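RECORD TYPE: protein structure
NAME: YqgE/AlgH family protein
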Amino acid sequence: MKAGIFLHSTVQLDSDFFAKASIFIAEHNEKGAMGFVINRPFPRKLNELAEFSGGVAFPLYDGGPVDREHLFFLHRRPDLVEGGTPVTGDIHLGGDFSQALVHLNNKTLAEKDIRLFIGYCGWDAGELETEIAEGSWTATANGNLF
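PREDICTED:
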């Protein structure tokens, strides 16, 4: 398994947070995996969070149950947002969030360029592979992130 794949929950997960979840795996290494639920809009916009109240009303997504006090982002504009980690193709994980905010507010970054998440999904080494083998997830190389 590698970063850049999409996971889709199976009926085995229909009774928990991951019911009907599609997840993009942004990081996968010897320590484990990190991903974001990509099909679950968060009920508030970016400007509805106190520290971003002066900015634009940009959509947020419920990225996962871990570290819900922080924002995370995926983007495909390394020319505008420095410091991101390449994931696959033109998709990057994180980077200089202050640069991203400037470009969101002046509308040079659009929904087709960046996705913001509250929280993330995380697995320890081997845990995700075990869940896939048990039938909790199906993995595909294809999906629509933006």
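COMMENT: The mean pLDDT is 95.
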